[in-house]
Specification:
about 200 residues, alpha+beta, 50s Ribosomal Protein L17, Chain: A, 3-stranded antiparallel beta sheet, two-stranded antiparallel sheet
């Protein structure tokens, strides 16, 4: 029996789940916010907050623990990033390192904050394929960054157009029903004779 066994399984085995957390944490710490599903964001939050707490300590042991958890990846903000150098095959060779940014920028940024370094904002949208609730997980204090919204999707546009069309049809059907009721012949205004008690 699984009494008091907590945590999110997310339909993955342990190694797959850790790899997912590592990749999502790298993306979150690089870009400041990412769009994902609510269960994934809730499972990622403690993982990232522990990494930021280690970055706040700033000592060598903490740096080694962060390196053990996520490695030392090169930060790539967008495809044609001028700070990143690539070899002739397009593979990353050199660029700004994420762990250095964590200890030099994020650690001091959250120095006066005791936990709660991330925020989950529900988007109120569902993913078209499986109707999962979408949300944005972002670092607190990056409100000046990109606006919280989902990515552009042609499927989302098509679904929105279908919903608008269906709403227009429903509104038209309601209007026709209202005119039919208004044009219906009215019942005669005769009153029923009063009952007389015998």
């Amino acid at each position: 029996m699984r009494h008091k066994v907590g945590g999110f399984k997310l339909g993955r085995d342990t190694e797959h789940r850790k790899a997912m957390w590592r990749n999502m944490a790298i993306a979150l710490l690089t870009h400041g916010q990412i769009t994902t599903t609510v269960p994934k964001a809730k499972s990622l939050k403690p993982f990232v907050e522990k990494l930021i707490s280690l970055a706040k300590k700033g000592d060598l042991a903490s740096r080694r623990r962060v390196l053990q958890q996520i490695g030392n990846p090169i930060m790539v903000k967008f495809d044609e990033d001028p700070d990143v150098s690539r070899n002739k095959y397009g593979e990353l060779v050199d660029g700004p390192k994420l762990v250095k940014r964590m200890f030099d920028v994020l650690g001091p940024q959250f120095a006066d904050r005791n936990g709660g370094y991330t925020r989950i904002v529900r988007l109120g949208k569902h993913r078209i394929g499986d109707a999962s609730d979408l949300c944005v997980i972002q670092l607190v204090g990056d409100e000046s960054g990109p606006q919280v919204s989902g990515q552009y999707s042609r499927r989302r546009d098509k679904a929105n157009k279908r919903m608008e069309f269906a709403a227009k049809l429903r509104k038209g059907a309601k209007a026709e029903a209202a005119t039919a009721v208004a044009e219906a012949p009215e019942a005669p205004d005769t009153e029923a004779p009063e009952k007389t008690e015998e």
